[in-house]
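REVIEWER CHECKLIST
Item 1: Sequence provided? yes
Item 2: Single chain? yes
Item 3: Sequence as submitted:
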Amino acid sequence: MPADALSPPEPGQRRLAPRIRARLHELYFGKSDRSVRFRLTVITIDLVMIAFFIAAPLIRETPAFLFIDYAVAFVLAADLLARALASDNLAAWIKRPVTWIDLFVLVTLLFPLWLFNLAFLRVLRLWTLVHSEFFWDTVGRRYNETRWEDVIRAASTLITFIFIMTGFVYTSFARTEGIGGYVDALYFTIATLTTTGFGDITLPGTWGRVISIVTMLTGITLFVRLAQALFRPYKIRFTCPTCGLRRHDIDAVHCKACGELLNIPNDDEV
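Item 4: Structure as written out by the authors:
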């Protein structure tokens, strides 16, 4: 065995891993222009991946599908590894539900032929992206803690639900009476959750009726949530130091719950 095989690593080698982690942490969480540009690039790649997830049933039979699928899997794996290295607490990062969703999406990408029936759940990536501080600290900095944050979050939840239900209907009832393809499944989902109910496409059997009921009830709830975010009087988020109430009128001086004097920051102040 060579003598240098048992020799300790050079000081530069020992410092390499901490330097990489520090650089990644700066890129993912830093405030510099370089960090913001990096995160914008990551978010753009995320949106491209989500578009692929939505379009996957339409291009599944094309020769390029597997190549694109594995390319997306490679990019997602690299992003997860970089986020793990950039995290201050790896154990806490692994325990986050968002991480488990991303790992599940990665598994479906690595085994597309065996797990394609679960691939519709990949669209959850849209929900996790728009509901992450990573997104709002980068793209939504101007609209963070405003009405538009609530609107965009509610809209992303509705869109995510639409495509998850579309994928579920397509996977479960494809090539049955009425559901001839992905577009038919999308049409059925939109018609059902808006309670339009044209009746030209219906799902067979008791299971089909149950899915229709769940789609209608959930769709109404999500539409109401979006309407509330758009039209109800907006309340600013500021935690009362006494009672902990987090929602207050924009011009509130005292907390409605306990009467504590509030000092809500004004963005117009210099």
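Item 5: Key structural point noted by reviewer: The radius of gyration is 24 Å.
Item 6: Recommendation: ____
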